[in-house]
Amino acid sequence: MDRPDRLTGNADTALEVCRSCPSRLVQPVQWRRLGDDLWEIDLRCPDCGATAREFVPKEAVARYDQVMRRARQVLERHLEAIERVDMGADRAPYGDPPPDLRILPEEPGPAADAA
Ligand SMILES: [Zn+2]
Fold it and tell me: What does the domain layout of the chain look like in residue ranges?
C-alpha cells in the first residue's frame, strides 16, 4: 500500500473546492480508509475534469460528508419544487374550458345518432 509520508490536507481542508478552477462541486470518485485517522480520497471536478488524490484526517472526511449532505438536501428541495410545478401543470394544462363548450351528460353522442 502506498502510504503517504504526510497528509495533503488537514481537518479544515475543503475537499469540495477544485484546485484547478473556481468550482465548489468537486466529487469523490473513490475513498479508502488507510488508518485510524487517515483517508485517501480520489476527487474529480465536474467543471474542468481535474482529478486529485488527497490524504486527509477523518475530520476532513466528516466535514466533506456534511457538505455533500447539505448539497443533497438543496437538490432534493429543488426537485420537490420542480415536481410541484409539474403536478400543477398536469392538473389543468390549458385551464378549464369555458362552460358553453362543455359536453353535458344528457347530450346524445355520435354513436346514438348512428343507431
Ligand atoms: Zn475544476
Answer: 1-90
